[in-house]
Structure formats: structure tokens, C-alpha cells
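Exam prep: given the inputs below (a chain plus BES), describe the expected output before reading on.
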Amino acid sequence: MMMLHNALEYAKNNYDQAISRLIEWLAIPSVSTDPAYKADVQRAAEWAANYLRSLELHTETIATTGHPLVYAEWLQAGPDRPTLLIYGHYDVQPAAIADGWTSDPFTPFVRDGLVYARGATDDKGQAFAQLTAVEAWLRGTKGLPLNLKVILEGEEESGGRSLAQFVQEQSKRLRADACVLSDTSMAHIDQPVITFGVRGIVAMELTIQGPSNDLHSGMYGGSVLNPIKALVDILSQLHDHEGRVAVPHFYDEVRPLSSAERAAMAAVAYSEAQWQQETGAPIPWGENGYSLSERIGARPTLEINGISGGYAGVGFKAVIPAQASAKISCRLVADQDPLVIYERVKDTVERLTPPQVKSELRYLSSGWPASVDLESPAMRAAVRAYEQGWGASPIFKREGGSLPIVADLQKHLGMPVIMMGFGLNSDGLHGPNEHFSLEMFRRGVQTAIHFIHEFAHMNG
Ligand code: BES
Ligand code: MN
Ligand code: MN
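Solution:
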């Protein structure tokens, strides 16, 4: 108990230092989806590696075919102590002033108790709360009460598979009794959430090719099927009027929700008013017969994420474009195989393509859905950690977002995974003016310190 107290004291006395470190990390634009930022992604990995090295963790940056992995370990607690794996991602979504940021997304600043920057909550800020807890144990006491492994990846936001490959090929190195990650959301500051389900995802790009070059729309208009029209015709047929995905066999593997599951989901309050406030959209849409939480957490979807083609610049250009394209993704639930779903969407697109154009549906990336055991000792340790570190008992929720690593760790390492979120859906992740509450960072660090203690002693 003395050690726990010392770790908590150390954290309490060093928050300002932790925040200035986090701000340094946030200032590195580690945008993994854009090759122009490759060197910055590398720099963010090195920054994290240097920090972990400064804590005297044995640390390596591991080169991959994509962005580097940062792996660190501290195994001095001895073989009779449990081993914990901490996962985080140091890459971020793209961000530009033009998207509505009020200032540069990579010049972090603190205002009214919030730190603003791309990555503030997703995931540098949340991951750094876990690492700050490690620092508190290592610096505030003589060491950790358990063996620790840390893996940070730089391809989470770009759907990269380097970590999945590492998990498969180097499974021994990552072996641990459980993995904890902070990359999800809570209901509000006084209501912590442990996420027990994440959806899978498969991302695709549909290209429609019409004439071999852009054509004068007066000279040829009326004689050529416009690829944009063909594209929107196809896209418009991918849902029916009940909000269901109109891809044959799309729902074949989806297990119906049991009445107990529906009751559990209904018990977690999520009102239409809250949904309205978060989204700013006029009224909800979606699959008939399902509540908002069920649509988001427990049902699969097909989404059009972007569309392009023709001329949309200043002025006007009288043109029939040669091509049009759309980015499409499906969110998947338990038992839906991303590649099987891709094949089914592809078959559907082929069937819907008129003979006047050619279509191609290209596979981009994917991740499996996952749900985790609520009864593991690690989960019980996490509940106690929130009670003591956050000051409130967590509720359990399924999330609509995706964290492909969860299924990879379960599948290849048989590891319980604890999704211990410290963020809020209103933090602006993936959107403009992303931020993270310093108070939530502080409680997150405390919770993570308690989790290390509870996990180390979970078997008595
Ligand atoms: N941290 C998010 C996922 C998330 C956010 C889960 C909020 C639960 C609550 C993660 O960084 C993310 O954005 N994942 C991507 C994965 C994709 C690019 C493979 C997603 O969900 O779109
Ligand atoms: Mn994330
Ligand atoms: Mn993200």
C-alpha cells in the first residue's frame, strides 16, 4: 500500500511536467495516412522511445514496411509476478485549419482546462496517461509491482497491418496476462465506461470509368452515360428504405440481439437529445427496429465516406468526366469476416453496374470486430481501479468505432484486453479542435496507477 501511495504522490506532484511532455509529443504531426508526414511519424516514434528509455525501460523502435513500432519492457518484477501489456497509437488523423480549426492543429495549447491539438485525445493524450502512470511507479517507488511491456504503433489511423504482423510473428515478445489500452470514450466525466465491444471495419474504393477522357458536355452530352450518374445510381441502391444495407447476405452471420443484451444496452442512457447535441443533424436515421445505441454499437453498417469526380472548382466547366469514385466502408459486428463482406459488396456493385461504364471495387484495409470477456480477473481489477482512481464505478458499453488490434491480440495471443477509455465523444476526435480534458488526464493517470496495483495483486 505504501508503494501505491508513493506512486500516487509522485503523479500528483508532477502533472505539470507530464502535460508539458505531452504537448511536445502533440506538436509532432504524426499523420500516418499521408506519405508527406513520414519523417514526422518517425519523429513521434522516436520521441516516445526516448521518453520510455528515460524511464529505464528496455526500448526499441522497430522498423516495418510502414511506420515504426515502439516496443519497451521492464521485466524486473520477476517470473512470479503477472505481466501487463500497454497498447497505444502515436499516429493521428490528418488535420488542417481549413477543416474548421481555430488555430494550428500541431501547435498545442491549453485553455480552460483543455489541451487542444490533433491527437490530444486520440490517442497520444490517452496513451500518455497510461505511460505517466508507469513513470509514477518507476520514479515514485523502487519499481513496478508487475512486469511491463509497452507497444505503440503508428498505423492505427491508416489501417496498417504492421502490428498485426508483429503480433503473429513475434507472439512470444508480446506475451502478457492482459493488455490494457486507453483509446475509447466515457459517457461523461463522472461516468467511466469500460468498452467491451468494438466493431470491425472494411474500407473500399469504388471507381467508375466511362469515356477514356473527359468530354465536352455539349458535343457528347446525351450520348454517354455520365460516370458520376452511374456512381450515384449504384450508391443509392446500397441501402433499402428501411435503413438496411441492401447487399445480399450482408447480415448472414450477424447474431440477433438477445433480449438480455437489448435490456443491458437500454440501461445505458443515450437520449435522442444527446445524440442531437453531439451530431447537430436534424433527426436520426438508421435501421428500423433498433435504438440509437443498438444502431451504433451492435449493428453493421455501410457508409459512403467520400465521393469525387468531375469539376467542382471555381466557375464552371462543361465536361462529362471520364471517372468518378467513392470511398466506402462497412462497420462490422461479431462473426462478420471483413474479406467475406468485401466480396459480397463487390458482387453487388458488379451486378448494379450498367453496361455503359466499367466499375472496380478495390479493397483498402480492414480490421475484425471484437468483444471481450467481462469476467476476467483483469476486468475485475479494472473496475476496482476506476472506483479508486476515478471515484466512480464504470458501466460497460459496446462502441461503434474500431480498434483492430483487440481482435489480433485475442486471436494470436489469447489475451484478455481491457479498453479503459479516458476520453469523451465530444473531444472532437477525427474532427476540428480536438481536445482532451486535463482533469480527465489526471483522473486517468490515477486510475492507471491503481490498475497496475490491482492487476499486480489480482490473484490475492
Ligand atoms: N480510437 C479510435 C476508435 C474509437 C474511438 C473507439 C472512440 C471507440 C470510441 C481509433 O483511433 C480509430 O479511429 N479507429 C479507426 C480504425 C480504422 C482507421 C481502421 C476507426 O474506428 O475508424
Ligand atoms: Mn484511437
Ligand atoms: Mn482514431
